[in-house]
Specification:
elongated; six-stranded mixed β-sheet; binds flavin-adenine dinucleotide; 466 residues
Length: 466
Amino acid sequence: MPVLNAEGKTFPTRTQVLIIGAGACGTIAALAAKEHGAEVLILERDAKPTGSTSLSGGQIPAAGTKLQRQAGLLDDTPEILAKDIIDKAHGECDHEIAWLIARESAKTVDWLVDRQKVPLSCILDFQYPGHSRMHMHASPSRFGAELLAALLTAVDKEDIPIATSARATDLYADPDGRIRGARVTRPDGKSEDIGCEALILACCGYGGDKAMIAKYIPEMVDAHYHGHVGNTGDAVKWGEELGASIKDMGSFQGHGAVATPHNTHIGWPAITEGGFQVNKHGKRFSNENAGYSEQALKVARQPEHRAWLIFDERCHRIAMQMHSHVEAENAGALKVCKTPQEIAKVVGCDAAAIAQTLAEVEAYASGKAKDPFGRDFSNKPPLKAPYRVVKIMGALFHTQGGLEVNKEMRVLKKDGSPFPNLFAGGGAARGMSGPADWGYLSGSGLLGATNMGRLAGEAAAELVTK
Ligand SMILES: Cc1cc2nc3c(=O)[nH]c(=O)nc-3n(C[C@H](O)[C@H](O)[C@H](O)COP(=O)(O)OP(=O)(O)OC[C@H]3O[C@@H](n4cnc5c(N)ncnc54)[C@H](O)[C@@H]3O)c2cc1C
Protein backbone atom coordinates (compact mmCIF):
# COMPACT_ATOMS: atom_id res chain seq x y z
CA MET A 1 0.00 0.00 0.00
CA PRO A 2 2.06 2.93 -1.22
CA VAL A 3 2.43 6.22 0.59
CA LEU A 4 3.03 8.84 -2.12
CA ASN A 5 4.88 12.13 -1.72
CA ALA A 6 2.26 14.90 -1.44
CA GLU A 7 4.65 17.65 -2.53
CA GLY A 8 2.95 19.91 -5.11
CA LYS A 9 -0.18 17.78 -5.06
CA THR A 10 -3.59 19.50 -5.18
CA PHE A 11 -6.91 17.83 -4.47
CA PRO A 12 -10.03 18.86 -6.38
CA THR A 13 -12.19 17.11 -3.74
CA ARG A 14 -11.50 17.76 -0.06
CA THR A 15 -12.94 17.03 3.34
CA GLN A 16 -11.79 17.87 6.85
CA VAL A 17 -11.80 14.40 8.42
CA LEU A 18 -11.40 11.43 6.08
CA ILE A 19 -12.20 8.01 7.55
CA ILE A 20 -11.18 4.72 5.94
CA GLY A 21 -13.60 1.90 6.81
CA ALA A 22 -17.33 1.86 7.65
CA GLY A 23 -17.44 -0.71 10.46
CA ALA A 24 -18.15 0.14 14.10
CA CYS A 25 -14.96 2.15 14.46
CA GLY A 26 -15.37 4.21 11.27
CA THR A 27 -19.07 4.97 11.70
CA ILE A 28 -18.64 5.93 15.36
CA ALA A 29 -15.59 8.06 14.56
CA ALA A 30 -17.64 9.83 11.90
CA LEU A 31 -20.57 10.47 14.28
CA ALA A 32 -18.23 11.84 16.95
CA ALA A 33 -16.27 14.03 14.52
CA LYS A 34 -19.47 15.48 13.04
CA GLU A 35 -20.91 16.13 16.49
CA HIS A 36 -17.74 18.07 17.29
CA GLY A 37 -18.09 20.30 14.27
CA ALA A 38 -16.02 18.66 11.55
CA GLU A 39 -16.89 17.90 7.96
CA VAL A 40 -16.51 14.15 7.46
CA LEU A 41 -16.32 11.60 4.65
CA ILE A 42 -16.15 7.81 5.07
CA LEU A 43 -14.54 5.59 2.43
CA GLU A 44 -15.67 1.95 2.31
CA ARG A 45 -14.24 -0.62 -0.09
CA ASP A 46 -17.41 -2.75 -0.21
CA ALA A 47 -20.60 -1.93 -2.08
CA LYS A 48 -22.46 -2.29 1.22
CA PRO A 49 -20.69 -1.77 4.55
CA THR A 50 -20.48 -4.96 6.58
CA GLY A 51 -16.99 -5.47 8.01
CA SER A 52 -16.24 -7.80 10.90
CA THR A 53 -18.68 -5.69 12.91
CA SER A 54 -21.67 -7.15 11.08
CA LEU A 55 -20.36 -10.72 11.49
CA SER A 56 -19.86 -10.27 15.20
CA GLY A 57 -22.00 -11.03 18.22
CA GLY A 58 -22.28 -7.26 18.61
CA GLN A 59 -21.44 -7.44 22.32
CA ILE A 60 -19.78 -4.38 23.80
CA PRO A 61 -18.29 -4.43 27.31
CA ALA A 62 -18.65 -1.30 29.45
CA ALA A 63 -18.59 -0.50 33.14
CA GLY A 64 -20.88 1.90 34.99
CA THR A 65 -23.47 2.49 32.25
CA LYS A 66 -27.00 3.79 32.73
CA LEU A 67 -28.28 0.47 31.39
CA GLN A 68 -26.37 -1.43 34.05
CA ARG A 69 -27.80 0.81 36.77
CA GLN A 70 -31.33 0.34 35.40
CA ALA A 71 -30.74 -3.43 35.44
CA GLY A 72 -29.64 -3.30 39.07
CA LEU A 73 -25.95 -3.91 38.30
CA LEU A 74 -24.63 -1.31 40.67
CA ASP A 75 -21.19 -2.64 41.49
CA ASP A 76 -19.40 -2.47 38.13
CA THR A 77 -16.68 0.16 37.79
CA PRO A 78 -14.03 1.20 35.24
CA GLU A 79 -11.41 -0.06 37.73
CA ILE A 80 -12.92 -3.55 37.57
CA LEU A 81 -13.10 -3.54 33.77
CA ALA A 82 -9.53 -2.22 33.44
CA LYS A 83 -8.32 -4.95 35.79
CA ASP A 84 -10.21 -7.61 33.81
CA ILE A 85 -8.60 -6.41 30.55
CA ILE A 86 -5.10 -6.23 32.02
CA ASP A 87 -5.35 -9.52 33.93
CA LYS A 88 -6.54 -11.38 30.83
CA ALA A 89 -3.54 -9.99 28.93
CA HIS A 90 -1.26 -11.13 31.81
CA GLY A 91 -0.32 -7.49 32.21
CA GLU A 92 1.30 -7.46 28.74
CA CYS A 93 -0.85 -4.74 27.14
CA ASP A 94 -0.61 -0.94 27.19
CA HIS A 95 -2.01 -0.26 30.67
CA GLU A 96 -2.63 3.42 29.98
CA ILE A 97 -4.83 2.59 26.97
CA ALA A 98 -6.65 -0.17 28.87
CA TRP A 99 -7.44 2.25 31.72
CA LEU A 100 -8.50 4.98 29.30
CA ILE A 101 -10.84 2.68 27.39
CA ALA A 102 -12.34 1.26 30.59
CA ARG A 103 -12.95 4.80 31.88
CA GLU A 104 -14.53 5.91 28.58
CA SER A 105 -16.63 2.78 28.10
CA ALA A 106 -19.75 3.91 29.99
CA LYS A 107 -19.75 7.30 28.27
CA THR A 108 -19.54 5.59 24.87
CA VAL A 109 -22.37 3.15 25.53
CA ASP A 110 -24.58 5.87 27.08
CA TRP A 111 -23.88 8.08 24.05
CA LEU A 112 -24.66 5.24 21.62
CA VAL A 113 -27.98 4.62 23.37
CA ASP A 114 -29.08 8.18 24.16
CA ARG A 115 -27.79 10.17 21.22
CA GLN A 116 -27.33 7.62 18.43
CA LYS A 117 -30.40 5.52 19.35
CA VAL A 118 -28.55 2.20 19.17
CA PRO A 119 -30.90 -0.30 20.89
CA LEU A 120 -28.54 -1.85 23.44
CA SER A 121 -29.39 -3.78 26.60
CA CYS A 122 -27.33 -5.59 29.24
CA ILE A 123 -26.66 -9.30 28.99
CA LEU A 124 -27.74 -10.60 32.38
CA ASP A 125 -27.83 -14.37 32.24
CA PHE A 126 -24.23 -15.38 31.69
CA GLN A 127 -20.68 -14.09 32.10
CA TYR A 128 -17.74 -14.63 29.78
CA PRO A 129 -14.45 -16.02 31.11
CA GLY A 130 -12.40 -13.21 32.63
CA HIS A 131 -15.39 -10.90 33.16
CA SER A 132 -15.71 -10.39 36.89
CA ARG A 133 -18.96 -8.43 36.37
CA MET A 134 -21.75 -8.45 33.75
CA HIS A 135 -19.96 -6.01 31.42
CA MET A 136 -21.69 -6.94 28.14
CA HIS A 137 -24.16 -4.74 26.23
CA ALA A 138 -25.75 -5.75 22.92
CA SER A 139 -28.71 -5.10 20.65
CA PRO A 140 -31.76 -7.42 20.87
CA SER A 141 -30.60 -10.13 18.44
CA ARG A 142 -27.05 -10.20 19.94
CA PHE A 143 -25.84 -9.83 16.35
CA GLY A 144 -23.38 -7.33 14.93
CA ALA A 145 -25.35 -6.81 11.72
CA GLU A 146 -28.09 -5.22 13.83
CA LEU A 147 -25.50 -3.05 15.61
CA LEU A 148 -23.97 -1.87 12.33
CA ALA A 149 -27.41 -1.22 10.81
CA ALA A 150 -28.22 1.05 13.78
CA LEU A 151 -24.89 2.87 13.37
CA LEU A 152 -25.44 3.35 9.64
CA THR A 153 -28.92 4.73 10.35
CA ALA A 154 -27.35 7.25 12.75
CA VAL A 155 -24.73 8.17 10.13
CA ASP A 156 -27.48 8.68 7.58
CA LYS A 157 -29.50 10.87 9.98
CA GLU A 158 -26.45 13.07 10.45
CA ASP A 159 -26.06 13.38 6.67
CA ILE A 160 -22.55 11.96 6.81
CA PRO A 161 -21.52 10.80 3.33
CA ILE A 162 -20.18 7.27 2.81
CA ALA A 163 -18.46 6.57 -0.49
CA THR A 164 -18.98 2.84 -1.08
CA SER A 165 -17.09 0.63 -3.56
CA ALA A 166 -14.27 3.04 -2.74
CA ARG A 167 -11.09 1.30 -1.66
CA ALA A 168 -8.36 3.57 -0.35
CA THR A 169 -5.25 2.26 -2.08
CA ASP A 170 -2.63 4.97 -1.49
CA LEU A 171 -2.04 7.77 0.96
CA TYR A 172 -0.44 11.13 0.17
CA ALA A 173 1.89 12.41 2.88
CA ASP A 174 4.47 15.12 3.48
CA PRO A 175 7.99 14.05 4.49
CA ASP A 176 7.11 14.76 8.18
CA GLY A 177 4.24 12.25 7.98
CA ARG A 178 1.41 14.79 7.67
CA ILE A 179 -1.34 13.09 5.65
CA ARG A 180 -2.66 15.25 2.81
CA GLY A 181 -5.15 12.84 1.27
CA ALA A 182 -5.88 9.41 -0.15
CA ARG A 183 -6.26 7.79 -3.53
CA VAL A 184 -9.48 5.85 -3.95
CA THR A 185 -9.69 3.04 -6.48
CA ARG A 186 -13.04 1.93 -7.82
CA PRO A 187 -13.90 -1.67 -8.84
CA ASP A 188 -13.57 -0.68 -12.54
CA GLY A 189 -9.97 0.42 -11.90
CA LYS A 190 -10.67 4.16 -12.10
CA SER A 191 -9.21 6.25 -9.31
CA GLU A 192 -9.72 9.65 -7.71
CA ASP A 193 -7.85 11.61 -5.07
CA ILE A 194 -9.45 13.14 -1.98
CA GLY A 195 -7.69 15.66 0.23
CA CYS A 196 -8.10 15.85 4.01
CA GLU A 197 -6.93 17.69 7.11
CA ALA A 198 -6.99 14.58 9.28
CA LEU A 199 -7.18 10.87 8.49
CA ILE A 200 -8.68 8.13 10.69
CA LEU A 201 -7.71 4.56 9.84
CA ALA A 202 -10.72 2.39 10.73
CA CYS A 203 -10.05 -0.39 8.23
CA CYS A 204 -9.49 -3.14 10.83
CA GLY A 205 -6.73 -5.75 10.85
CA TYR A 206 -5.01 -8.29 8.58
CA GLY A 207 -7.08 -11.46 9.01
CA GLY A 208 -7.95 -11.34 5.30
CA ASP A 209 -4.29 -11.29 4.16
CA LYS A 210 -2.90 -14.84 4.18
CA ALA A 211 0.69 -13.67 3.69
CA MET A 212 0.48 -11.44 6.78
CA ILE A 213 -1.06 -14.26 8.83
CA ALA A 214 1.73 -16.59 7.65
CA LYS A 215 4.29 -13.99 8.72
CA TYR A 216 2.83 -12.86 12.05
CA ILE A 217 0.51 -15.65 13.24
CA PRO A 218 1.85 -18.78 11.48
CA GLU A 219 0.08 -21.09 13.93
CA MET A 220 -3.27 -19.92 12.48
CA VAL A 221 -2.37 -19.88 8.79
CA ASP A 222 -4.29 -23.09 8.07
CA ALA A 223 -7.23 -22.21 10.31
CA HIS A 224 -10.57 -21.02 8.99
CA TYR A 225 -10.79 -17.19 8.91
CA HIS A 226 -14.24 -16.19 10.14
CA GLY A 227 -13.85 -12.39 9.90
CA HIS A 228 -14.37 -9.93 7.06
CA VAL A 229 -12.32 -10.90 3.99
CA GLY A 230 -11.81 -7.25 3.02
CA ASN A 231 -9.67 -6.59 6.11
CA THR A 232 -6.34 -7.02 4.39
CA GLY A 233 -4.02 -5.16 6.75
CA ASP A 234 -3.99 -1.88 4.83
CA ALA A 235 -3.54 0.22 7.99
CA VAL A 236 -0.46 -1.77 9.01
CA LYS A 237 0.95 -1.65 5.45
CA TRP A 238 0.65 2.16 5.36
CA GLY A 239 2.03 2.32 8.89
CA GLU A 240 5.10 0.36 7.81
CA GLU A 241 5.67 2.78 4.91
CA LEU A 242 5.26 5.80 7.16
CA GLY A 243 7.54 4.48 9.92
CA ALA A 244 4.80 3.98 12.50
CA SER A 245 5.21 1.97 15.67
CA ILE A 246 3.46 -1.38 15.15
CA LYS A 247 2.96 -3.74 18.07
CA ASP A 248 1.62 -7.14 19.15
CA MET A 249 1.34 -8.48 15.62
CA GLY A 250 1.05 -12.04 16.92
CA SER A 251 -2.10 -11.17 18.83
CA PHE A 252 -5.54 -12.31 17.70
CA GLN A 253 -9.08 -13.16 18.66
CA GLY A 254 -9.67 -16.82 17.98
CA HIS A 255 -12.80 -18.86 18.64
CA GLY A 256 -12.78 -22.45 19.78
CA ALA A 257 -16.29 -23.50 18.74
CA VAL A 258 -17.18 -22.83 15.12
CA ALA A 259 -19.62 -25.46 13.85
CA THR A 260 -18.28 -27.33 10.86
CA PRO A 261 -19.15 -27.62 8.03
CA HIS A 262 -21.81 -25.00 8.84
CA ASN A 263 -19.36 -22.16 9.57
CA THR A 264 -21.33 -20.48 12.32
CA HIS A 265 -20.08 -20.05 15.85
CA ILE A 266 -21.68 -21.68 18.85
CA GLY A 267 -22.82 -19.32 21.61
CA TRP A 268 -20.18 -19.44 24.33
CA PRO A 269 -22.77 -19.99 27.11
CA ALA A 270 -22.72 -23.57 25.81
CA ILE A 271 -19.31 -23.73 27.52
CA THR A 272 -19.58 -21.28 30.40
CA GLU A 273 -22.79 -22.97 31.59
CA GLY A 274 -21.17 -26.39 31.82
CA GLY A 275 -20.55 -27.80 28.33
CA PHE A 276 -17.24 -29.43 27.42
CA GLN A 277 -15.26 -30.57 24.39
CA VAL A 278 -13.88 -33.95 23.35
CA ASN A 279 -11.58 -35.04 20.55
CA LYS A 280 -12.24 -37.89 18.13
CA HIS A 281 -11.28 -40.36 20.87
CA GLY A 282 -14.04 -39.05 23.13
CA LYS A 283 -11.50 -37.49 25.54
CA ARG A 284 -11.38 -33.96 26.93
CA PHE A 285 -8.15 -32.12 26.17
CA SER A 286 -8.30 -28.72 27.93
CA ASN A 287 -9.92 -26.29 30.33
CA GLU A 288 -12.51 -25.13 27.81
CA ASN A 289 -13.55 -22.20 29.98
CA ALA A 290 -10.24 -20.31 30.02
CA GLY A 291 -11.37 -18.13 27.10
CA TYR A 292 -12.87 -18.67 23.67
CA SER A 293 -9.92 -17.05 21.94
CA GLU A 294 -7.18 -19.40 23.16
CA GLN A 295 -9.54 -22.37 22.73
CA ALA A 296 -9.16 -22.03 18.93
CA LEU A 297 -5.60 -23.35 18.92
CA LYS A 298 -6.40 -26.05 21.49
CA VAL A 299 -9.09 -27.38 19.12
CA ALA A 300 -6.90 -26.92 16.04
CA ARG A 301 -4.20 -29.09 17.67
CA GLN A 302 -6.53 -32.09 18.08
CA PRO A 303 -6.44 -35.04 15.64
CA GLU A 304 -7.76 -33.91 12.23
CA HIS A 305 -8.04 -30.36 13.74
CA ARG A 306 -11.57 -31.07 14.90
CA ALA A 307 -13.43 -31.59 18.19
CA TRP A 308 -16.99 -31.98 19.44
CA LEU A 309 -18.80 -29.75 21.91
CA ILE A 310 -21.28 -31.42 24.27
CA PHE A 311 -23.79 -29.44 26.35
CA ASP A 312 -27.39 -29.73 27.51
CA GLU A 313 -30.77 -28.03 27.06
CA ARG A 314 -30.17 -25.52 29.86
CA CYS A 315 -26.91 -24.33 28.26
CA HIS A 316 -28.61 -24.40 24.85
CA ARG A 317 -31.49 -22.16 25.98
CA ILE A 318 -29.07 -19.48 27.22
CA ALA A 319 -26.89 -19.74 24.11
CA MET A 320 -29.98 -19.37 21.88
CA GLN A 321 -30.03 -15.60 22.57
CA MET A 322 -26.99 -15.39 20.24
CA HIS A 323 -27.83 -15.02 16.58
CA SER A 324 -24.99 -17.31 15.48
CA HIS A 325 -26.17 -20.07 17.81
CA VAL A 326 -29.66 -19.82 16.33
CA GLU A 327 -28.06 -20.14 12.89
CA ALA A 328 -26.26 -23.31 14.03
CA GLU A 329 -29.55 -24.71 15.33
CA ASN A 330 -31.39 -23.82 12.11
CA ALA A 331 -28.62 -25.38 10.03
CA GLY A 332 -29.05 -28.68 11.89
CA ALA A 333 -25.54 -28.53 13.35
CA LEU A 334 -26.65 -29.32 16.92
CA LYS A 335 -27.46 -33.03 17.18
CA VAL A 336 -29.75 -34.11 20.00
CA CYS A 337 -28.42 -37.22 21.78
CA LYS A 338 -30.04 -38.99 24.71
CA THR A 339 -27.34 -41.51 25.58
CA PRO A 340 -23.54 -41.89 25.52
CA GLN A 341 -24.06 -44.35 22.64
CA GLU A 342 -25.82 -41.68 20.56
CA ILE A 343 -23.09 -39.13 21.33
CA ALA A 344 -20.42 -41.68 20.40
CA LYS A 345 -22.14 -42.24 17.07
CA VAL A 346 -21.95 -38.48 16.26
CA VAL A 347 -18.31 -38.27 17.36
CA GLY A 348 -17.35 -41.59 15.76
CA CYS A 349 -15.69 -43.01 18.87
CA ASP A 350 -16.21 -45.71 21.49
CA ALA A 351 -19.39 -45.34 23.57
CA ALA A 352 -17.35 -46.41 26.61
CA ALA A 353 -14.99 -43.43 26.15
CA ILE A 354 -17.89 -40.96 26.06
CA ALA A 355 -19.58 -42.63 29.04
CA GLN A 356 -16.35 -42.30 31.01
CA THR A 357 -15.86 -38.62 30.04
CA LEU A 358 -19.49 -37.81 30.98
CA ALA A 359 -19.02 -39.54 34.34
CA GLU A 360 -15.77 -37.61 34.96
CA VAL A 361 -17.41 -34.25 34.17
CA GLU A 362 -20.31 -35.11 36.45
CA ALA A 363 -17.85 -35.92 39.26
CA TYR A 364 -16.14 -32.51 38.75
CA ALA A 365 -19.53 -30.74 38.78
CA SER A 366 -20.68 -32.43 41.97
CA GLY A 367 -17.36 -31.74 43.68
CA LYS A 368 -16.40 -35.45 43.98
CA ALA A 369 -13.25 -35.01 41.90
CA LYS A 370 -10.99 -32.23 40.61
CA ASP A 371 -10.57 -31.54 36.91
CA PRO A 372 -6.94 -32.26 35.93
CA PHE A 373 -7.15 -29.32 33.46
CA GLY A 374 -8.03 -27.00 36.35
CA ARG A 375 -11.57 -26.08 35.32
CA ASP A 376 -14.16 -25.48 38.03
CA PHE A 377 -17.38 -27.21 36.96
CA SER A 378 -18.90 -27.00 40.44
CA ASN A 379 -20.41 -23.50 40.01
CA LYS A 380 -22.93 -24.78 37.41
CA PRO A 381 -25.56 -27.53 37.58
CA PRO A 382 -24.36 -30.92 36.25
CA LEU A 383 -25.35 -31.57 32.62
CA LYS A 384 -28.55 -33.54 32.07
CA ALA A 385 -29.67 -35.64 29.10
CA PRO A 386 -30.74 -34.97 26.42
CA TYR A 387 -27.45 -33.51 25.22
CA ARG A 388 -26.57 -31.32 22.26
CA VAL A 389 -23.49 -32.35 20.27
CA VAL A 390 -21.81 -30.33 17.55
CA LYS A 391 -18.67 -30.89 15.50
CA ILE A 392 -16.42 -27.86 15.76
CA MET A 393 -13.17 -26.29 14.57
CA GLY A 394 -10.98 -23.47 15.85
CA ALA A 395 -11.12 -20.26 13.83
CA LEU A 396 -9.42 -16.90 13.51
CA PHE A 397 -11.95 -14.09 14.14
CA HIS A 398 -9.78 -11.02 13.88
CA THR A 399 -6.25 -9.82 14.49
CA GLN A 400 -5.33 -7.69 17.50
CA GLY A 401 -1.94 -6.29 16.54
CA GLY A 402 -1.62 -2.94 14.83
CA LEU A 403 -0.67 0.70 14.95
CA GLU A 404 0.37 2.00 18.34
CA VAL A 405 -1.78 4.96 19.40
CA ASN A 406 -1.70 7.45 22.26
CA LYS A 407 -4.61 8.58 24.43
CA GLU A 408 -6.01 10.74 21.60
CA MET A 409 -5.82 7.78 19.21
CA ARG A 410 -3.02 9.51 17.31
CA VAL A 411 -0.76 7.01 15.56
CA LEU A 412 2.75 7.03 17.00
CA LYS A 413 6.03 7.04 15.14
CA LYS A 414 8.75 4.56 16.08
CA ASP A 415 10.33 7.24 18.30
CA GLY A 416 7.07 7.55 20.27
CA SER A 417 6.06 10.97 18.91
CA PRO A 418 2.63 11.27 17.24
CA PHE A 419 2.06 11.82 13.54
CA PRO A 420 0.60 15.30 13.00
CA ASN A 421 -2.87 14.31 11.78
CA LEU A 422 -3.11 10.51 11.60
CA PHE A 423 -5.48 8.60 13.91
CA ALA A 424 -6.44 4.92 14.19
CA GLY A 425 -8.88 2.76 16.11
CA GLY A 426 -10.59 -0.62 16.26
CA GLY A 427 -8.83 -3.46 14.51
CA ALA A 428 -6.43 -1.06 12.78
CA ALA A 429 -4.84 -0.12 16.11
CA ARG A 430 -2.89 -2.23 18.57
CA GLY A 431 -5.44 -4.00 20.77
CA MET A 432 -5.41 -4.54 24.51
CA SER A 433 -4.74 -8.29 24.38
CA GLY A 434 -0.97 -8.54 24.72
CA PRO A 435 1.17 -10.48 22.27
CA ALA A 436 -0.83 -13.67 21.59
CA ASP A 437 -4.22 -15.42 21.51
CA TRP A 438 -4.64 -15.90 25.27
CA GLY A 439 -4.85 -12.20 26.13
CA TYR A 440 -8.15 -11.45 24.43
CA LEU A 441 -10.89 -10.60 26.92
CA SER A 442 -14.30 -11.35 25.35
CA GLY A 443 -15.63 -8.17 23.81
CA SER A 444 -12.26 -6.45 23.44
CA GLY A 445 -12.80 -6.12 19.69
CA LEU A 446 -15.86 -3.89 19.90
CA LEU A 447 -14.58 -2.31 23.10
CA GLY A 448 -11.67 -1.01 21.03
CA ALA A 449 -13.72 -0.22 17.92
CA THR A 450 -16.41 1.77 19.74
CA ASN A 451 -14.28 3.68 22.24
CA MET A 452 -11.28 4.28 20.02
CA GLY A 453 -13.65 5.32 17.24
CA ARG A 454 -15.34 7.93 19.43
CA LEU A 455 -12.06 9.23 20.83
CA ALA A 456 -10.41 9.38 17.40
CA GLY A 457 -13.40 11.22 15.96
CA GLU A 458 -13.42 13.77 18.76
CA ALA A 459 -9.66 14.36 18.62
CA ALA A 460 -9.61 14.65 14.82
CA ALA A 461 -12.48 17.16 14.94
CA GLU A 462 -10.68 19.21 17.56
CA LEU A 463 -7.57 19.26 15.39
CA VAL A 464 -9.31 20.44 12.22
CA THR A 465 -11.66 22.97 13.82
CA LYS A 466 -9.30 24.80 16.15
C1 LIG B 1 -17.69 -13.89 14.07
C2 LIG B 1 -17.18 -12.77 14.91
C3 LIG B 1 -17.79 -12.50 16.13
C4 LIG B 1 -17.31 -11.44 16.92
N1 LIG B 1 -18.01 -11.10 18.06
C5 LIG B 1 -17.59 -10.04 18.80
C6 LIG B 1 -18.34 -9.59 19.92
O1 LIG B 1 -19.43 -10.08 20.23
N2 LIG B 1 -17.83 -8.58 20.67
C7 LIG B 1 -16.66 -7.96 20.32
O2 LIG B 1 -16.23 -7.05 21.02
N3 LIG B 1 -15.98 -8.30 19.21
C8 LIG B 1 -16.43 -9.31 18.43
N4 LIG B 1 -15.75 -9.64 17.30
C9 LIG B 1 -14.65 -8.75 16.87
C10 LIG B 1 -15.26 -7.47 16.25
O3 LIG B 1 -16.16 -7.83 15.25
C11 LIG B 1 -14.16 -6.57 15.66
O4 LIG B 1 -13.14 -6.38 16.61
C12 LIG B 1 -14.75 -5.21 15.29
O5 LIG B 1 -15.92 -5.37 14.54
C13 LIG B 1 -13.74 -4.38 14.52
O6 LIG B 1 -14.39 -3.20 14.10
P1 LIG B 1 -13.69 -2.27 13.02
O7 LIG B 1 -14.61 -1.15 12.77
O8 LIG B 1 -12.30 -1.99 13.46
O9 LIG B 1 -13.55 -3.20 11.74
P2 LIG B 1 -14.65 -3.71 10.68
O10 LIG B 1 -15.99 -3.80 11.25
O11 LIG B 1 -14.09 -4.96 10.06
O12 LIG B 1 -14.68 -2.55 9.61
C14 LIG B 1 -13.57 -2.29 8.78
C15 LIG B 1 -14.09 -1.80 7.45
O13 LIG B 1 -13.00 -1.28 6.68
C16 LIG B 1 -13.20 -1.62 5.32
N5 LIG B 1 -11.90 -1.52 4.65
C17 LIG B 1 -10.80 -2.28 4.83
N6 LIG B 1 -9.78 -1.83 4.08
C18 LIG B 1 -10.25 -0.75 3.40
C19 LIG B 1 -9.68 0.16 2.46
N7 LIG B 1 -8.39 0.05 2.06
N8 LIG B 1 -10.45 1.15 1.95
C20 LIG B 1 -11.77 1.29 2.32
N9 LIG B 1 -12.35 0.45 3.22
C21 LIG B 1 -11.60 -0.54 3.76
C22 LIG B 1 -13.77 -3.02 5.39
O14 LIG B 1 -14.45 -3.36 4.19
C23 LIG B 1 -14.71 -2.91 6.60
O15 LIG B 1 -16.01 -2.53 6.23
C24 LIG B 1 -16.19 -10.69 16.49
C25 LIG B 1 -15.57 -10.97 15.27
C26 LIG B 1 -16.06 -11.99 14.48
C27 LIG B 1 -15.40 -12.25 13.15
